[in-house]
Write a structure and sequence with these properties.
Elements (H helix, E strand, L loop, with lengths): L8 E5 L4 H12 L3 E6 L8 E2 L2 E2 L1 E4 L5 H15 L4 E4 L14 H29 L2 E7 L10 H21 L4 E7 L7 H5 L2 H10 L8 H12 L10 E4 L7 H12 L1
Parallel strand pairs: 1-2, 1-6, 2-5, 6-7, 7-8, 8-9
Antiparallel strand pairs: 3-4
C-alpha cells in the first residue's frame, strides 16, 4: 500500500470509537500522523501496526478550547493537512417536548463544532493545500423523526460543506460523506436486536449495513490526490439507500390478494 499521507498531519474529532476509530486507523495506515480529541481519554489508545493516534482532552463545543487545541497541534507538528469532522450524534428525543438546552447541545456538537474546528484549522490547511471531510448522515437528506434536531444539524453541515468549498477554494477542498446505516459497538441501541439488524441489512440493496471501514475508505479517498478535483461533493456511502416503506406495504397487500 502506498502511503499518500506520509509526512502529513490529520485531525479526526471523535476518533476514539466507532466510525471515528476506523477513520483514525485507516489514516495511520496511510502514513498520516493523526490527532484526535474527546472529553475523556479512551481506555486504550487507538492505533494499528504499532502506530498510535495522539489524544488531547478537548470539548469541541467550546470555541476557545478548540482554537487552543488546534494551535498546539500546529505548533507541535508544523502543519495540518486534513480535518475530519466526525464527532456527532444524538439520542432520540420527542420534538414536541425536547428542551431548548437539549436542542442547543445537539446543534453545538453536530453543526457548530465542525465550524469551529474548520475555522481554527483553516490557515494551516490553506498553507498545506489541505482538505476537510465532514461526516454527515442520511438524516440530513431524508426525514429524521425522533432525532429531528440532529437531522436539521446534519443538513446544516451539508450546506456548510458546499458553502465553505466555494469560499475556501482553491486552497482548501471541503467535502461531506452522507453516512448510511452503520454497524457499530452500539448497534443494538440504535437498531434493536440481532434479528432486527439482520432484517435491516437484508432490506438494503447491498445486503448489509455499513462498517466503519467503509466510511474510512471514503475519507481516505476524498483526502487523497485521486480526489484533487472533488470539492463541495456529498458522497453517499449508504449501500444503495433505504428502501421506501410504501413498497413493502404494496408488496404485503399484493400478497394478500
Amino acid at each position: 500500500m502506498s502511503e499518500t499521507g506520509r509526512g502529513k498531519v490529520a485531525i479526526v474529532t471523535g476518533g476514539t470509537r466507532g466510525i471515528g476509530a476506523a477513520i483514525v486507523r485507516r489514516l495511520l495506515a496511510e502514513g498520516y500522523a493523526v490527532a484526535t480529541c474527546g472529553r475523556t481519554p479512551p481506555e486504550q489508545p487507538v492505533g494499528i501496526d504499532g502506530k498510535q493516534a495522539e489524544f488531547d482532552a478537548c470539548d469541541i463545543r467550546d470555541p476557545a478550547a478548540v482554537a487552543a487545541w488546534i494551535e498546539a497541534l500546529a505548533a507541535r507538528h508544523g502543519r495540518i493537512d486534513l480535518v475530519v469532522n466526525n464527532a456527532g450524534g444524538s439520542p432520540q428525543a420527542d420534538a414536541a417536548t425536547a428542551s431548548p438546552r437539549f436542542s442547543e447541545r445537539i446543534l453545538q456538537l453536530n453543526l457548530l463544532a465542525p465550524l469551529h474546528v474548520s475555522q481554527a484549522a483553516y490557515p494551516h490547511l490553506k498553507a498545506a493545500g489541505g482538505s476537510i471531510v465532514n461526516i454527515a448522515s442520511v438524516s440530513a437528506v431524508r426525514p429524521s423523526p425522533d432525532t429531528a434536531i440532529y437531522g436539521a444539524a446534519k443538513a446544516g453541515l451539508v450546506s456548510l460543506t458546499t458553502s465553505l468549498a466555494q469560499e475556501w477554494g482553491p486552497e482548501v477542498r471541503v467535502n461531506a460523506i452522507i453516512v448510511g446505516l452503520i454497524e457499530t459497538e452500539t448497534a443494538e441501541m440504535t437498531y434493536g436486536s440481532a434479528a432486527a439488524q439482520d432484517r435491516i441489512a437484508a432490506s438494503l440493496p447491498l445486503g448489509r449495513m455499513g462498517r466503519g471501514s467503509d466510511i474510512a475508505e471514503a475519507v481516505n479517498f476524498l483526502a487523497s490526490p485521486a480526489a484533487a478535483y472533488i470539492s463541495g461533493a456529498k458522497l453517499e456511502v449508504h449501500g444503495g439507500g433505504e428502501r421506501p416503506l410504501f413498497l413493502e406495504i404494496v408488496k404485503q397487500e399484493s400478497a394478500k390478494g
